[in-house]
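Exercise: predict the fold of this chain.
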Amino acid sequence: MLKDIVKNLEPSSTLKINEISKKLEIKGKKIFKFGFGQSPFQIPTDIVNELKNNAHQNKYLPMQGLDDLRNSIAKYTSTKKNYSYTSNNVIIGPGSKELMFLLHVIFDGEVILPVPSWVSYMPQAIIGRNKVQLLQTKRENNWFPTGSEIEKIILKNKKKNYLLFLNSPNNPSGQICENLEEISQIVKKYNLLVLSDEIYSELSFNNDYKSISNFCPEKTIISTGLSKWCGAGGWRLGYFIIPKNLKIIGDTLSVLASETFSAVSAPIQYAAIKAYEGNHLNYIKSSKEILKAVGNYVYENLNSNNILINKSQGGFYLMPEFVNAKSKFSSSSEMCKNILEKTGVALLPGVDFGFDKKKMLARLSFTDFDGKNFMQEYKKNENLDNVTIKNLAPKVAEGVDRLKKWSDTI
């Protein structure tokens, strides 16, 4: 029999919408895949070649990860963060998602999840038998909490251990947290543990990206990986960077890793060294400029009195709120189902990210285009006007048009 704690869990919403979209396409319906978020771009060629060159690597690697890879990540991150990390601070996992799950398992306390919150944070916390405190946020603050809002939760019981999740750039809102110093003061004051999910950090549209680790590195576990900036979601390689004063967490995670996934695929770990030692600045720059332009196109064509939306600041998401839908539907799930049926546009409802079901919010991923072709054409002339976007991201343009018309007619 199933344990009570997992009986009511459902498949991840992001994976579920991808499967639904595929089934509808097989039936012949034209679907605009705005629900599933993954990079549209190809993995850089030098990294792919490195994987081919290391296909013969067939030995189990250290459970914490390949030494050379951890060294390259530590050097890369130390330069980025202006903080000294070593290979001992790094643990490699089969995607950062698995490492976050293990963190939930070992943590004993309450988890503070600002809403909107990525769909897997809460289910993982539930499996880890930790109480979750959902912290509702506002559009005016980029959908991130204020320091006083976090403090209000802690003051209810200062004796508890608290783990605060921050995801910036954020999935699902596409927003960046701009009050990190204020939050860091609360972190230090109450000795909080912070998980900084920075999986989209390389795709921040602002070149001066800051994370909570810039303000309280000794309290922050950094979580990131290859999937978003490198277009390598299917490779499943993520990592944690854990400061030395949190060594007991790193050691415990390594023990759990040895009893669960053992070690990440050897060829992929060897290939990943090239990702952090090679020069991919032009690839990342082009990726960001394309995503920013496509995101702006979607924003400019949807933003209206009927659709409230913040301009994307990083990654590949927008979070529109359909004002007119409030009187038409009982939940955001019902709304998104109607949108899919009427327009073929697949969105994820806001309720999946922690919002009240009556808030007519949805996550929109603007990656339904041929990233390889777009990147090649962009490198030829670096033109990102609306005509180019319509030509190179036609499903994004058509899907947005259908969504706009749907909103105007409900």
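Check your answer against the key: The first helix runs from residue 4 to 7.
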